[in-house]
Amino acid sequence: MEYSRRWRRSVCCTVMLAVSGLAACQEQTSGPENPPTAVQVEAAVLADYAPAIRLTGEIRARVESDLSFRVAGRITERLVNVGDHVMADQVLARLDPQQQQATVTAAEAAVLSAEAVLRQATSSYERQKALLARGFTTQREHDQAVEAYRTAQASRADARARLGTARDHLSDTVLRAGVAGVITARNAETGQVVQTAQTVFSIAQDGPRDAVFNVNESIFTHELANPAIALTLVSDPAVTATGVVREISPTVDRATGTVRAKVGLAQSLAAMTLGASVIGEGRLEPRKFVAVPWSALSSGSGQPAVWTVDPETKAVLLKPITIEGYETGKVFMRDGLRPGEIVATGGAQFLRPNQVVAVAKGAGR
């Protein structure tokens, strides 16, 4: 009996100690709740967005021409190379003139023959005219002499025209520049047989210059704030110029998906040589968009988003946005946010949807 009482007393003590320990643990864990996450906030505002457009292009001649022979033949001389500056009357290449020279010789012989026939017809006509006046010939013979005379005149004119054409073809075996400029391409070599109108050289004519850019077509949906385009030489930023958009291609290049735009230089600078790379910069007309600090930008499901704070409940919500563009320290949004909405700009990395936050002291509202 004594042993049974001792055992019951021991069990009761053990149970009381366990209950006391559990109570002590509950007292330790049941402290004050964790404070809400502190975030910095700022109100979204409506601001002007006037992005600067910067593109790289190259200097080109305003007028570029392809030069070719007017007759076919084998090239016997090529006198210039790519990059050479040529004058208008300078010879660039020659063809073998043998065939054209033979044609000229034949045409000259045809002219001599026609002139001999004309002299004979003229003599006959004058004789018949004199005989008719004295009544020693018939009207029919006189008319035949007149017809032969006129036919001989026409034959001589035709022969002379053929001779002129043959001489032109002979002169066409010599290719001249025609205009002053710089040779930009060479498409034939000595000994090569070329056909009529086949391009042999390309020349960039002296005179006004253009800066040529390949531009995304979406840019043309907005107007420029200033028609003047600032141009800077890539190899030497100290060299600058201005120009205006002179021509825009009406079609999109299928290979690049861009539109070619030509900016006419106000003045041609010697440092901006043909083919030189330049940077063109222009600014679009300002437009109103909702803007927030760049630090408010977050991500949701791989898409741009911002955390908004309910001013009454202080609960946060992740809102997807559509970005229009960026500036230093700012993000401009086309859709997803209204002016005046409060967004988290600091501490957003610790937030979850519907979490209640505390606005940091001194944060903008």
Keywords:
24 strands, alpha+beta, 365 residues, 4-stranded antiparallel β-sheet, 3 helices
Walkthrough of the structure:
It is a single chain. The model is unreliable at 11-32 (pLDDT under 50). The protein is built from three helices and 24 strands. Helix 2 (98-134) runs antiparallel to helix 3 (139-171). The longest helix has 37 residues, at 98-134. The chain has 365 residues and is an alpha+beta fold. It is 27% helix and 38% strand. The relative contact order is 0.20. Strands 3-12-15-14-13-16 form a six-stranded antiparallel β-barrel.
How is the secondary structure organized here?
Blueprint: H1 2-29, E1 37-43, E2 45-49, E3 52-61, E4 64-68, E5 73-78, E6 85-86, E7 91-95, H2 98-134, H3 139-171, E8 174-176, E9 181-186, E10 193-194, E11 199-205, E12 209-216, E13 228-233, E14 240-248, E15 258-265, E16 277-283, E17 287-293, E18 297-300, E19 303-309, E20 316-320, E21 322-327, E22 330-335, E23 342-346, E24 357-359
Parallel strand pairs: 1-24
Antiparallel strand pairs: 1-23, 2-17, 3-12, 3-16, 4-11, 5-7, 5-10, 6-9, 7-8, 9-11, 12-15, 13-14, 13-16, 14-15, 17-22, 18-19, 19-20, 21-22
